Amino acid sequence: MRLGVHITRFNQGAARLGPDLAAACAAAEAAGVGWLSAMDHYFQMEHNGGPEDAMLECYTTLGFLAANTSTVRLGALVTGVTYRHPGLLAKIVTTLDVLSGGRATLGIGAAWYEREHTGLGVPFPPRSERFERLEETLRICHQMWDADDNGPFEGKHYRLAETMCSPAPVSAPRPEIMIGGNGERKTLRLVARYADACNLLVPTPAEVSHKLDVLRRHCDDVGRDYAEIRKTMVYLGDTPKVGDADAFAEELAGYAGLGIDTIVVMAPDGDLAEWIEGVIAPTTRRMADVD
Questions:
Q1: How many CA within 13 A on the CB side of residue 291?
Q2: Cα–Cα distance between 274 and 203 in angstroms, integer?
């Protein structure tokens, strides 16, 4: 089992953000972190400080993280389907994959934060349409990353005359696709049909087990090998502090037997590199022997 770090706060001040994120990258790789992600929002979320707090554009940030790392896997957790046109999104993720040497994951979901859409004038269709758009986006990304199919694509919501993507991704056969969310009827069905990984946001091993059972049934329904899908989750407990490594590792070990590959921990406000060195690094060492 691996640990990941999810960056959600950017309150260091503009002058410090670049150096602090670069230091966090060095600390993450030294700690053996397997995943490094940034939140993809236009505005900071209400429960995390609100729109008045700083928020960086996600894929520009991931490009910076890529330039300051060499091994860790990178992705958004997660991109709302409404944020970027699917063809552009596939091109952006391809660029990240090429420049990072094949370390990009497309993390994607159906979007939910209406205020940021209204605030910046981005259309926010009803939930059912957002899921329709999500499925079409997944189909478009698969086609964009298929060297033998350059288009066109004709969908209900998107029409592309050409699905050209040059240069092609470095990842083979394409960048990993991760769908985030817990929805049993739609989200996990889309994971079974289109994704390489899922990302769950539930607080207990029992709930994780239930969601994975649902995913397994969807895989059976579509003829997909459940074992092919990488299982990840966001840790929803209290943010661990320095000195908590033993107790934190013991808590996380409860997810190992469920097949969880990576547990992503949300970073706190403040000195990110110091927190990684003090909490994530010792926990990673303790988790290395957990299967």
A1: 0
A2: 26
**Among 77, 85, 72, which residue's Cα sits nearest to residue 109?**
77
Cβ(211)–Cβ(184) below 8 Å = yes
Q: Where are the domains of the chain?
A: 2-287
* Per-residue pLDDT band at 190 (split at 50, 70, 90): very high
Rounded to whole angstroms, the Cα distance separating 145 from 245 reads: 41
Q: Which residue has the higher pLDDT, 238 or 139?
A: 139
DSSP one-letter string for 84-130: S-HHHHHHHHHHHHHHTTS-EEEEEE----HHHHHHHT-----HHHH
How confident is the model at residue 247, as a pLDDT?
A: 86
pTM: 0.95
Residue 72 CB neighbour total at 10 angstroms:
23
pLDDT digits (tens, 9 = 90+) for 158-178: 999 999 999 999 999 999 999
Enclosing H/E stretch for 260:
strand 260-266
* Structural fold of domain 2-287: TIM Barrel (3.20.20)
